[in-house]
Amino acid sequence: MKKFAVVAMMATALLGSTSSYAADLEVTHWWTSAGEAAAVAEFARVFEEETGNKWIDSALAGSGTGANPVIISRIIGGDPMGATQMNTGRDAEELIQAGLMRDLTDVVADMDIDSFYVDQTLLEPCRYEGGLYCLPVNIHSWDWLWLSTKAYEKIGQPVPKDWNEYVASWPALQEAGILPFGLASGWPINGIPGVLMSAIGGEDLVFKINRDKDVEAVRSPEFRKVADALDQIRSVVSPETMVPSFGDVGTQLIEGTAAGNIHGDWLQGDLQVAGAVPGKDYECLPALGLGNKLTGGGDSFYFPQLPEGTDPAVIEAQAQLARILISPEAQLAFNMKKGSMPIRTDIDLAQANPCMQKALGLLKNGLLPSGDFSLSSDTQKQLEDLNLEFINDDSITVDDYIERYASIIESAD
Amino acid sequence: MSQATAINAPAPSRGTVSGTEPRGPRPKPFFTPKKIIIYTTLFFFSLYFLFPLYVMVVTSLKTMPEIRFGNIVALPAAPSFDAWVRAWTSACTGLTCNGLAPGFWNSVKITIPSTIVSIFVAAVNGYALVNWRFKGSEVFFAILIFGSFIPYQVMLYPLVMITRELGIFGSLQGVIVIHTIFGMPILTLLFRNYFASLPQELFKAARVDGAGFWRIFFEIMLPMSLPIFVVALILQITGIWNDFLFGVVFAGTQNLPMTVQLNNIVNSAQGTPEYNVNMAATVLTGLVPLIIYFVSGKLFVRGVAAGAVKG
Amino acid sequence: MADVATQPGNMAGTSSRRGFLHRLFLHNLSAKVAAIPMIATVLVIFVGCTVWTIYYSFTSSKLLPKNTFVGFDQYARLFGTNRWNISITNLLLYGSMSLVLTLTLGFLLAVLMDQKIRFESAFRTIMLYPFALSFIVTGLVWQWIMNPTLGLQGTLRNMGWTGFTFDWISNPRMVLFALLIAGLWQGVGFCMILMLAGLRGVDEEIWKAARVDGIPTWRTYISVVLPMMRGVLVTAVVIIGSGIVRLYDLVVALTNGGPGISSEVPAKYVYDYMFGGGNIGQGLAASTMMLLSVMIIMIPWAYLEFGGKGRR
């Protein structure tokens, strides 16, 4: 409660110092599912309560190809929104370089953000020529193996403790008619190689490939292990068994018709909504139970430069929102609903469920740069195409996969 | 337009089934082999065309457990309009849970002026192309047709920049201009073909009388063009009503069309999809063009017949 | 506007003794003013955007257009990309099947509808209504019908027909046919209307003459009526063809390019790389290739249509 009071005081101070009437601030984001909407509602609630301004919500389904073109068009078309969510990473770097985003350095100057951000690397994409152009608001990680308690009850085996035990249990699962690996069609496959890379290939491999774009690392024996693991997954999934959305995989896990799945922490939001309890209905293994660090990305907020003649109250509202998004109260409220990890280290997350507690434990070891964090969206898109093709087409050998992965990394910028 | 006579005219008309149709010869005996083939074929095609509509409507009246049971052809056990009410009034897109209703009026606001302006411009184009050819007019027309093949996503950025320079980005005017541009190829083609099919004597006589471009257009051409206007109207209302990308980018935040909400309801990547609400939202969004088709289907055919015959 | 004597409708050929400039700007001034929107659209939007597209396809533009030229690099990458090659193949396969089937079925249904049948207006409405629905809706409902567990397959299996398989949407070899079913469902009705209109425009005398000569009905349709419907066919081919080349929404809504990348199409490649991948150069190289192929098809047509001076 003490922190809440501090925020409230800060906000009051801000209010007192500026215009006393409320401004409308349009915020675009692609958080349209039930759980996401509940989370973003927390931001809106705190913002409106603390500042008296109005949050005008512009939700646009579908991240990359759905919302991005609209957000970017509006910014370059001179009709920018007050604030927008985007992925933490390099999606907006050219907009920043073109001077279309507002520098937040002064806005958060007195907050000493360096002191509480979990990992300074999170802020790297936001920095450009000494300015600060975005604020990461959460950390999402793909590095989770979700396991169905029910499926393992059916075959009378204990729930695996790591990836290797899990793979070893596949034949028994298949015999019992249970899908060893549940998978949704489309993009969910795309996060899996990165997870395998950090858990099986190890920390060094992640740094070499994602950060240094080292082609030799792709051709190394460590990466081959990763590709082999992906090949193993491929052997137990087929287009016919794939479900339309990852939420359906959650249902499969709860029902025990699929035994496991590698997917990001947001899957937990869906499991939660379905009433499943961690430890009872499902188990979660961060870093596949093998590694001790998570790869992380997440979402950031950007504040476009508003055109000349904009009501100063709106510009002030941008600043107020920026401060509130990373305030302890909003961070706690938002991330509890979103199922992601806060970007602050100084928040008491006693209410977090066991899975999130495990993640917070690993977070203390620092973050590994995930692919969507350090590779350009162009490179990510190419890798996504490759992964989709590989998982669906058995005629592509592991060697082909490695070679094509290498050539994409080679041309990565 | 409707003098086409049945090919099987020689067959003696026995009149076992009394015709109630206003036009054409009296119906022939129903059960000739040829008729059976015709009606059977049409019947099976009708099944193909109707099945999805049936599925949409039936699914929208079911509850989610019933849907998961996995019988898409079964009638709902207890038909419920809950999904419809939710889709219309309370389905959420982001934080706002007002359903499709608010977007409906925005769609109307975009569709009406865009339709009128785009049709007017295309009608003038077609008229100028047929009756007032100028050097290179055919080249312009050819490029216009070529333009209808350009994937319009490609033109998004240049159009954003052009409308920005014109100061109409993010406004109703902006989206009207965009729809006028993208409606132009096909509509101009239709109007050009239609005006070419009109007797040229009328035009020549008016010219001799000294009537100018606009007078001939408004006083002679327009009154004769009702059929093709109906076609253009239907095509444009459908196209603009169903448009998503241009509406969301160019119309400005005050005017987001209904399809944005439909897209949000249907394409939310996360969570278990509520198929019944999806289907209800789908039908609701398609309702306006559907009604227009049902009401004016006959005029549509007549208009196409009038406008597309001459090449 | 004084020169009433000018033959209307053919002023391009009229050799006026007035000056060139006069002819270019003042002659039929109102007509030229009225044509400004079209001329502006053609020059600025269609020609302009095409030039813009080609220009930036030679640059390394990422999220925003930039003037850093890289020669044919984008094209080299394009043709080295499996997904692009698959997209092209798919478009050719889907496009030819769709064009042929839409035209054939449209014509066939129009002929059936033209037999003085009863309930014509009901049949017509039934066939035409899908055209009123957006591709997003079309994709959604067919995805639902083809959903292996909840759709038709699951339904019939639940009813006891356990061997029933209708999994085209998740079968890489059949997925194009799944697209085709949905695409035809939406487009055949409109084509039928066009064809029906064309049939009704054929002079009754032609039929009489054909009957007198003893030509079988089907031959009359193919060798007499069809050639007379040239205008309709051109309209139909333009509308269907442009829809095929720009095919995007339906794929996104129905398969999203899957399973894997087996139902990808060029327009989706363009869009995904321009916006999803933030690589304008690559997206524009792809769209330049699309424009080029359209041009290759269009130029002979334009030549036939407009090439000879006195058309008709």
**Roughly what is the average pLDDT of chain C, rounded to an integer?**
84
Strand element count of chain C = 0
Number of domains of chain C: 1
Main interface by residue count = B-C, 124 and 115 residues
What's the total helix number of chain C? 15
Q: Would you write up a description of this structure?
A:
The complex is a heterotrimer of chains A (413), B (311) and C (312). With 413 residues, chain A is α/β, with parallel strands linked by helices. Chain A has 20 helices and 13 strands. In chain A, the strands form four sheets. In chain A, strands 2-1-3-12-6 form a five-stranded mixed sheet, with helices on both faces. Chain A has a four-stranded mixed sheet with strand order 8-9-7-10. In chain A, strands 4-5 form a two-stranded antiparallel sheet. The model of chain A is unreliable at 1-6 and 8-19 (pLDDT under 50). Chain B has 311 residues and is an all-alpha fold. Chain B folds into two domains: 1-80, no CATH class; 101-307, MetI-like (MetI-like fold). In chain B, 67% of the residues lie in helices and 0% in strands. Chain B is built from 13 helices and no strands. Chain B has helices at 33-60, 64-68, 82-90, 101-131, 137-147, 156-166, 172-197, 200-208, 213-224, 226-242, 245-250, 258-267, 275-307. In chain C, 67% of the residues lie in helices and 0% in strands. Chain C has helices spanning 20-26, 29-34, 36-56, 73-79, 82-113, 120-128, 135-146, 152-158, 175-200, 204-212, 217-228, 230-245, 249-254, 266-276, 280-307. At the B-C interface, helix 1, helix 4, helix 5, helix 6 and helix 7 of B face helix 2, helix 3, helix 5, helix 6 and helix 7 of C.
